[in-house]
Amino acid sequence: MKGKILAAVAVLVLSVTAVQGQVNFGIVAGPNFQNMVGKDAGGDKLTNGLITGFHAGVNISFEVAPDFLIQTGLLFSQKGSRNNESVILVKAANDDYICTTRVSYIELPVHILYRPELGSGHLLLGFGPYVAYGIGGTQNVDFEVLPAFEQKIKFRNEVPLADFLTLDYAYYKGFDAGADIFAGYELGMGLSVRLNAQLGLLDMVTDVANWEGESVLKNTGFSLSVGYNF
Q1: What is the C-alpha separation between 199 and 212, in angstroms, rounded?
Q2: Listed residue (197, 194, 14, 181) closest to 112, CA to CA
Q3: CB within 8 A of 123, min separation 6: which ones?
Q4: Looking at residue 189, which CATH number applies to its domain?
Q5: 1-7: long-range contacts at Cβ-Cβ below 8 A with a sequence spacing of 24 or more?
Q6: Can you give the residue range of the structural domain that contains 59?
Q7: Distance CA 170, CA 47 (A)
Q8: Terminal Cα distance for the chain, rounded
Q9: Rounded distance, CA 21 to CA 224, Å?
Q10: pLDDT tens across 24-71, in order?
Q11: What is the DSSP secondary structure assignment for residue 157, as one 8-state letter?
Q12: What is the pLDDT of residues 172-229, one digit of tens each?
């Protein structure tokens, strides 16, 4: 699955290098409002809370037809959630357990961008896939029967049960992929604002060896971006 996603994105990225036409470089930054949603070990829906983070990075756009561009780039992006679902093994609901997860990613989006003239600027409509990889993060746990504590996040596809039970670290899978859709407006001076919605497609919960009934969590959220094209 990962190989197919990476291959598809690589083909899109490489294809834009052969495109002739207008090329735009830009910078972008803004707040993220993120969550991790999914199901617990019993198949019940997990309802978590939003956290506020941020994203920042650079992008490059290649014109492929009048008003149509392919846009890619690199972003630093914070994701995660605030919830009252236990993260110990099965993530079963527990009102006495509050956990705030913040994960930092390097993210590569590849968007098809529709950019027609509108007034003195341009309308921005886009969609496409993204891939991302975790580079760090923390998880703060407040459990009624224990003192509050912080765990650093390690990225593993699978961990031994003994390592997981020490609670020294919080474990998540490092690779993420999903889809973006956005709408916005670019002023004639190159300044732009856009609203972006993102849906992760991969389970981020690390598998625990010799344990059955783990939950499923996927990144999801939206963001507000302010950008400038040079």
Answers
A1: 26
A2: 181
A3: 114, 115, 116, 117, 184, 185
A4: 2.40.160
A5: 1/202, 2/175, 2/177, 5/129, 5/131, 5/177, 6/131
A6: 2-229
A7: 20
A8: 37
A9: 28
A10: 899 999 999 999 888 877 777 776 788 999 999 999 999 999 999 999
A11: S
A12: 999 999 999 999 999 989 999 999 999 999 999 888 876 666 778 899 999 999 999 9
Distance between CA atoms of residues 155 and 137, nearest Å: 10
Beta bridge partners of 109: 130
Q: How many domains does one find in the chain?
A: 1
Which residue is associated with the tokens 């886009």?
126
What pLDDT, in 10s, does the model give residues 212-223?
667 788 999 999
Q: Which two tokens stand for residue 170?
A: 């919080």
- Mean pLDDT in the chain? 84
What six digits make up the tokens of 143?
């459990």
d(C-alpha 148, C-alpha 88), whole Å: 15
pLDDT tens for residues 115-153? 999 999 999 999 999 999 999 999 988 776 667 888 899
